From TrEMBL:
It comes from the Bacteria. This is Hydroxymethylglutaryl-CoA lyase. One of its GO terms (molecular function) is lyase activity. SUPFAM superfamilies: Aldolase (SSF51569). Residues 1-270 form the Pyruvate carboxyltransferase domain. Belongs to the HMG-CoA lyase family. It holds the Pfam family HMGL-like. Coiled coil: none annotated. Keywords: Lyase, Metal-binding. InterPro entries: Aldolase_TIM, HMGL, PYR_CT.
Length: 282
């Protein structure tokens, strides 16, 4: 079972700039907890996401010597990928590919067809550099724009990504609309159909729904979950402040209740929880 902690997603929508040193201190603390991967920053336009304009500077302040946690950075185009690939410390690049044409244009200023070409180019560059590309299928559980959506459409996107050699695909519920039944349905279909692909769940949720969504994913065979401590973050499109990222501490409680040993340092986790109020109360 892999937990991916996402301070980048938690921070990116905060309007007041969080000091670079504070970001780095928080990520360093997270690195001591024992998460499989930390989604720590993004190499995107500072005009689009001002909060992430210091990702390279944050990286310079990270102390990664005593941690096995890997680092993931989000990119939105080939230029961002090239910037991220310069850093040996980064293990994964993440790219948001949307099933919704409207959201793809809003998120990366490109059509789905153009975005798929970008995925192919980034995948090729990652292979040369020995990195892995995580492709997020955003709006993977539906969209609010009236764009076409169905589980069959999700399968078509997965097949296209498989043809490009993508090995990690994270189904993303950008607006917190996924029901446990739909979560189970998607993973029960995709995981057996593409056993060579690692499927993850990047879900947004109200806190009271986190446990049911995690259980739905686990029952369908998902072993990779993204979250953020205290459920910070979320998509501005949701227009609901209560729909943030999946609260990591709740996911931990649920997964341990199901019998999983996550290998986390609980003392370091408590220290990270204490830091959240300082980091996010800006």
């Amino acid at each position: 079972m892999k937990l991916i902690e996402c301070p980048r997603d938690a921070m990116q929508g905060i309007p007041n700039f969080i000091d670079t040193a504070i970001k780095a201190a928080y990520i360093n603390q997270l690195a001591h907890v024992g998460f499989d991967t930390i989604d720590f920053g993004s190499f995107v336009s500072p005009k689009a996401i001002p909060q992430m304009r210091d990702t390279a500077e944050v990286l310079e302040l990270l102390d990664l010597h005593d941690t096995e946690s890997k680092l993931l950075a989000i990119v939105a185009n080939v230029r961002g990928a090239e910037d991220a690939l310069q850093f040996e410390e980064i293990d994964y690049l993440g790219f948001p590919l949307s099933i919704s044409e409207t959201f793809q244009k809003r998120n990366t200023n490109a059509s789905i067809t153009e975005a798929l070409k970008t995925v192919e180019e980034i995948q090729n560059r990652c292979e040369v550099k020995g990195k892995a590309l995580v492709t997020y299928l955003s709006m993977g559980f539906g969209n609010p724009y009236g764009d076409p959506y169905s589980p069959e459409l999700v399968a078509e996107f997965v097949e296209k990504l498989d043809e490009l050699g993508i090995k990690i695909i994270s189904l993303s519920d950008t607006i917190g609309s996924a029901s446990p039944a739909l979560i189970t349905e998607l993973f029960e279909v995709q995981i057996p159909s593409f056993p060579h692909i690692e499927f993850g769940a990047h879900l947004h949720s109200r806190k009271e729904d986190v446990s049911a969504k995690v259980k739905a994913g686990v029952e369908a065979g998902c072993t990779r979950f993204d979250g953020a401590l205290n459920g910070f973050g979320g998509c501005p499109m949701a227009k609901d402040d209560l729909v943030g990222n999946m609260a990591t501490e709740q996911m931990i409680e649920t997964l341990e209740g199901l019998g999983y040993d996550l290998g986390l340092n609980k003392a370091e986790l408590q220290e990270a929880m204490k830091l959240t109020s300082f980091v996010f109360d800006q």
